[in-house]
Design goal:
- The structure is a single chain.
- A hairpin with a 3-residue loop joins β1 and β2.
- Strands 4, 5, 6, 7, 8 and 9 form a six-stranded mixed sheet that branches. Strands 1-2-3 form a three-stranded antiparallel sheet, covered by helices on one side.
- By secondary structure, it is mainly beta.
- Helix content is 11%, strand content 30%.
- The protein is globular, with a radius of gyration of 18 Å.
Length: 212
Amino acid sequence: MSDPIETVQSKAVRIRFDSKKCIHSRGCVLSRPDVFVPNVKGEWIHPELATPEEIAELAHQCPSGAIQYDRLDGAPPETPPKVNLVRIRENGPLAFYGDLQIGGLESTIRVTLCRCGASKNKPYCDSSHKEIGFQATGEPNPIESPALPVRNGKVKIDPSTNGPLLVSGPVEVVSGTGKTVLKTTKTAFCRCGASANKPYCDGTHTKIDFKS
């Protein structure tokens, strides 16, 4: 199997693109089609056509973390945000942004995780929600919760076997329109796609024999 990660660099910056994590939000090709050239054969990533700061901004706008970068000019790398967030995408995945540790396997800042149950690359989203016509609101009802004393720091995301995403650490869950719906340090997000209380787990995965 070929390596899903493409690495291309200029003198000042290195881009790492992970095709298995890409959810085709298309921010890169729409904002800088000269750097990320769509629908061509051969080389399609051209970091030399942008400044390192512009490359960093493109990466920061990539919700899945498919685009990563390394500064080769001595500038600091990407740092976690001051507020850890989970964005609920309408009929789509959960977009995490924070100081993230996923299943003890990967440390990252940006990632989109499957909540439809159909991804072939679990726990990551692979856009299968579009193929199956998954429907789930991005505007769940807010849950009254006190302000967090600490809004950043390490967040552990453990995809439980045949079960939900177990999240521990300070996170603020926000709707697709940016409304805060929950502030918490511990919760479980549905990833079987069948919970009646989406985006949270309600135990339905055991009833439908969900496998991950």
